[in-house]
Amino acid sequence: MSQPASRLPLLQRPSWKALAAHHDEVRQLHLKDLFAGDAGRGERLTLSAGDLFLDYSKNRVTDRTLALLLRLAQEAGLEERIRAMFNGEKINATEGRAALHVALRAPAGSTVLVDGRNVVPEVQAVLERMTAFANRVRAGQWTGHTGKPIRNLVNIGIGGSDLGPVMAYEALRHYSERSLTFRFVSNLDGSDFLEATRDLHPAETLFIVSSKTFSTLETMTNANSAREWLIAGLGGDPKAVARHFVAVSTEAEKVTAFGIEAANMFGFWDWVGGRYSMDSAIGLSTMVAIGPDHFRSMLRGFHRMDEHFRTAPFAENMPVLMGLLSLWNTNFLGAETAAVLPYEQYLKRFPAYLQQLTMESNGKHVTREGRPVEYQTSPIYWGEPGTNGQHSFYQLIHQGTRLIPCDFIAFDHPLVPLGRHHDLLLANVFAQARALAFGKTAEEVEAEGTVARLVPHRVFEGNRPSNVLMADRLTPAVLGQLTALYEHLVFTQGVVWDIDSFDQWGVELGKALAMSIIPDLEGGAEPTLGYDSSTNNLIRRYRASKARSPG
Ligand SMILES: O=P(O)(O)OC[C@H]1O[C@](O)(CO)[C@@H](O)[C@@H]1O
């Protein structure tokens, strides 16, 4: 009896083989030909989902490519896996956990089961506590140890406990309470903490220690420095900690051991992965900044995209389609990276946020069963806001030797109109996508009167794929939809690649080695170094330098 396609290794699935053969047929096709052969392509290969509009016409795909990619998703059992995620099944198999970030934005009154328990009431209860806290701080009613109202909030966290909060704060700054100051400290490098707190007064400062595990080296080191800074700045009274620290964590005992009162802890659950946690209590700083109503609106945006992903047929499903197009670029066209280029300054941290979401999720080398993959998994995500990138790395995107698919993100309206700025900005989005796709031939360059020796330098091959993603304007709801779009794109790819998108074992080895090296750097006696000769030498050199000039 033949096996169902989803049981076969990816490279042996009929749709993969068909895509490989198809790729041989279409590899020479230029986007110019595709557009010339279909006058309606630019309108046809578009899609709306919620408030988002996607133009994917400038991808190097034919209708047959798309049909085969959709078949690939079907053969991977994507439908069933989506159902499994939304049903709270333990799809993060290596950690034995559900991956149920969709429950964080499920409407009050709905049901999402984890181990037979409806988690929606717990999620809503935490949101209510966050709301009460946010309202108190925003109204100046949360006072510090000396009785002064809190005016500065410093989120201490790293990875998913930092990138989501920073990204959302920057993205929604327009909606933010301007009388409050927000800072984010993540790096173990002490200068991060020092610079973030340099101009703050401890009496008016509250730290949000955000850590799912409450044991991450960076976060706990920064939290301890924050406690020392606070106590020293408030006359040495350790009791000050209670009014100036709150925690977001799943680890109540560790939080109270640090000195934070249980009443000032906001919980979440092991079924929320760090990089999927910005709409849990990890988003506390976001809620204080933009207010509970805007935060709820962001959650509704996430939920809107969740519902689209859960219910839309694959051919009209934005995350599925974008996930498959990116997979086509990666596995068949050989793209190694993907650029995310927001033409909206407020989204300046969105590429950094996406780096963790995409690469920590799908940077995997074995299948769910632990067999080595025989294909590339996550591309390397990177990017900068336009138009800054244009005057930096776009040269390589246009004329370099690598294929770099681009996601342009733009809005019909700016949040703050200023003269001609927005028309000029949008003209650049449309121009860049067009230039990448269609390029400029030697004949066109010659026709402009260019001297012969410069012609090759001024030729643009084109045929470089891109998506253009647009919405009316950057609102909290749109940010929710945009973020959920990429979350589900990552999920789609992980299912096809047959990898666990929700674990992150790859960060463990370096962490463990650092822990063993710390005593070698801090100890007084000469350590017996048992590492490789390079590591031994680096440690000796560092110790000698420290001994010559301590501090
Ligand atoms: O919230 P925690 O437990 O401090 O972890 C922070 C980050 O560390 C990681 O576990 C590894 O980088 C991320 O997945 C997570 O977002």
From TrEMBL:
<comment type="similarity">
    <text>Belongs to the GPI family.</text>
</comment>
<dbReference type="Pfam" id="PF00342">
    <property type="entry name" value="PGI"/>
</dbReference>
<feature type="active site" description="Proton donor">
    <location>
        <position position="360"/>
    </location>
</feature>
<dbReference type="InterPro" id="IPR035476">
    <property type="entry name" value="SIS_PGI_1"/>
</dbReference>
<keyword id="KW-0324">Glycolysis</keyword>
<comment type="function">
    <text>Catalyzes the reversible isomerization of glucose-6-phosphate to fructose-6-phosphate.</text>
</comment>
<dbReference type="InterPro" id="IPR046348">
    <property type="entry name" value="SIS_dom_sf"/>
</dbReference>
<comment type="pathway">
    <text>Carbohydrate biosynthesis; gluconeogenesis.</text>
</comment>
<dbReference type="GO" id="GO:0016853">
    <property type="term" value="F:isomerase activity"/>
</dbReference>
<keyword id="KW-0413">Isomerase</keyword>
<dbReference type="InterPro" id="IPR001672">
    <property type="entry name" value="G6P_Isomerase"/>
</dbReference>
<comment type="pathway">
    <text>Carbohydrate degradation; glycolysis; D-glyceraldehyde 3-phosphate and glycerone phosphate from D-glucose: step 2/4.</text>
</comment>
<keyword id="KW-0963">Cytoplasm</keyword>
<dbReference type="InterPro" id="IPR035482">
    <property type="entry name" value="SIS_PGI_2"/>
</dbReference>
<protein>
    <recommendedName>
        <fullName>Glucose-6-phosphate isomerase</fullName>
        <ecNumber>5.3.1.9</ecNumber>
    </recommendedName>
</protein>
<keyword id="KW-0312">Gluconeogenesis</keyword>
<dbReference type="InterPro" id="IPR018189">
    <property type="entry name" value="Phosphoglucose_isomerase_CS"/>
</dbReference>
<feature type="active site">
    <location>
        <position position="511"/>
    </location>
</feature>
<feature type="active site">
    <location>
        <position position="391"/>
    </location>
</feature>
<dbReference type="InterPro" id="IPR023096">
    <property type="entry name" value="G6P_Isomerase_C"/>
</dbReference>
